[in-house]
Amino acid sequence: MTGHPAARPIPTDLERLAGLAIVPRRYYGRWVAAAIILLLFAWVVKAFAEGQIAWKVVGQFLTAPAILNGLVNTVIMTACAMTLGIVLGVLFAIMYMSPNPVLRGSALFYIWFFRGTPLLLQLLLWFNLALVFPRIGIPGLIEFRTIDLITPFVATLLGLGMNQGAYTAEVVRSGILSVDLGQSEAAKSIGMTRLTTLRRIILPQAMRVIIPPVGNEFISMVKLTSIASVIQYSEILRNAQTIYYANARVIELLIVAAIWYLAVVTLLQIGQFFLERYFSRGRGERRSRQKANRGIAAGGPP
Amino acid sequence: MNAQPAPIVVAHQVSKRFGPLLALNGVSLSIAPGTVQCIIGPSGSGKSTFLRCLNQIEKIDAGAILIDGELIGYRRVGDTLRELSDAEIARQRLATGMVFQRFNLFHHMTALENIIEGPVTVLRRSRREAVDEAMALLARVGLTDKRDAYPIEMSGGQQQRVAIARALAMRPRIMLFDEPTSALDPELVGEVLAVMRDLARSGMTMIVVTHELGFAREVAHDVVFMDRGEIIEQGPPAQVLLSPQQARTREFISAVLT
């Protein structure tokens, strides 16, 4: 390096320059993009409004008893299957990470099997369990006819829940792995057992990583329940189909079902937002808090 | 020195291996109650590993450790040593409190929640009693106004002082410090050392792995210099730090001071 390039002269009215008003940058591209998107949207809305859709029929069936009944069944199944899935997921994630080879092996097998076969096949397997075991129970003590026990509800719950558990196990495992090892060392150092450490220290922090994908899967589950129509579980889509087989208003009833699915998913998304905020306490809002701290540090004494 | 009290910590021929690396090679050390034992040495010398073995975060491969006369990690049955259960090891850890280099405060809890977590969930004390005691401890480390702050909202020095309060809340017999000031900005080291000095004055038995030779000279009753998993030199701070007998100790101390 040989010397610096000649410096530009400093403006003489530096005082005035520092006091000039600031004009924010203009984003013309955004306005153009917004206009195009609005136009496209208006065109789609117009098409649907003028199309061969009897909107009166949509409004009429939106609150029909069969539809509402299906909606309730869909919501109940989503909640039950996800609960089963999350419980199994946590259980198998912990088993998978256990030093005990028997537990680890079992978890590995479970995840391998339920992730490795199609959900539809699993549903059919559960539904037809009576073909394999006509009666189940503890011999001599209590026994049921399988056909009475495995109703469409039970078969769907087992199928969806156990399949979900295999996926959630991997999500929970990645959440647990995301927690710094120093956290469990600190927990040990205050005399916590492994189980207490998991419950009080590791899982609450893993939730931050677990919630977004599980929320995603929750939303998937709402729609996955529709697959249960093949084994006669009367969720909303199946009930909508039953109606349009009778009245031939196919699109209208599909729109009714779509509206309800969107409504349920919207509620879930709102719930997820609040859950995420709760579990990111002490972590989230990092940026705004740091800014606030910096402000205090700059103003206050050291 | 007459009528010496029984040592509260006895390590006898302790060895620890990490794969091919011999992290501790026959370390023997006795510590009298109420004393401050500093351990110095280059990184990788095994000093932190030794501390983690005392707290059973690491398992030793050979030798024996007794804390307050109790064999750590094993039960003697005839001529064999039986490994203790998870719950029994957790109970034994109550004798020692640990302060980590990287603080390791529970991120999802406020300062106060960090301190009462052990007393409430492990010792099953009432929450009110635990909170009262935690507030006294926060006052002792000078952080009463940080009771509702999350770790991320505190400086490193403040986090480490809360970590000390968290360990003290379990009323341990011995406090272990694993390079407690190494991760701190230089201007924050003083506040943590002040809390530790205060703790030493109160008569707490302390084992401190540190690079703060000034602190060791001022507070320690005894200093150990470790290198490559072995104790090279041991004695009063004036001797080990100011006129070391071993060449390796001299080398280390002059390297730290320059």
What is the topology?
The complex is a heterodimer of chains A (302) and B (258).
Chain A: H1 14-18, H2 28-50, H3 55-62, H4 65-96, H5 101-116, H6 119-127, H7 129-132, E1 135-138, E2 142-145, H8 146-149, H9 152-177, H10 181-189, H11 194-224, H12 236-247, H13 250-279, H14 286-299
Antiparallel strand pairs in A: 1-2
Chain B: E1 9-18, E2 21-31, E3 36-40, H1 47-54, E4 62-67, E5 70-71, E6 74-77, E7 80-83, H2 86-92, E8 96-99, H3 111-122, H4 127-140, H5 156-168, E9 174-178, H6 186-201, E10 205-209, H7 213-219, E11 222-227, E12 230-235, H8 237-242, H9 247-257
Parallel strand pairs in B: 3-10, 3-11, 8-9, 9-10
Antiparallel strand pairs in B: 1-2, 1-4, 4-5, 6-7, 11-12
Helix pairs in contact in B: 3-4, 3-5, 4-5, 5-6
Please explain how this structure is put together.
The complex is a heterodimer of chains A (302) and B (258). Chain A is mainly α and 302 residues long. In chain A, 74% of the residues lie in helices and 3% in strands. Chain A contains 14 helices and 2 strands, in the order H-H-H-H-H-H-H-E-E-H-H-H-H-H-H-H. Chain A has helices at residues 14-18, 28-50, 55-62, 65-96, 101-116, 119-127, 129-132, 146-149, 152-177, 181-189, 194-224, 236-247, 250-279, 286-299; strands at 135-138, 142-145. Chain A has a two-stranded antiparallel sheet with strand order 1-2. In chain A, helix 4 (65-96) runs antiparallel to helix 12, helix 9 packs across helix 11 (194-224) and helix 12 (236-247) packs antiparallel against helix 13. The longest helix of chain A is centred in the first third of the chain and has 32 residues, at 65-96. Chain B is built from 9 helices and 12 strands. Chain B has helices spanning 47-54, 86-92, 111-122, 127-140, 156-168, 186-201, 213-219, 237-242, 247-257, and strands at residues 9-18, 21-31, 36-40, 62-67, 70-71, 74-77, 80-83, 96-99, 174-178, 205-209, 222-227, 230-235. In chain B, strands 8-9-10-3-11-12 form a 6-stranded mixed sheet, with helices on both faces. Chain B has a 4-stranded antiparallel sheet with strand order 2-1-4-5, covered by helices on one side. A two-stranded antiparallel sheet of chain B has the order 6-7. Chain B has 258 residues and is an alpha/beta fold. The mean pLDDT of chain B is 94. Classes of the chains: A mainly alpha (302), B alpha/beta (258). The A-B interface holds A 180, 182-183, 185-194, 196, 200-201, 204-205, 279, 281-283, 286, 289-290, 293, 302 and B 55-57, 86-87, 90-91, 93-94, 96-98, 100, 102, 104-110, 117-118, 121-123, 150-153, 163, 166-167, 170, 187.
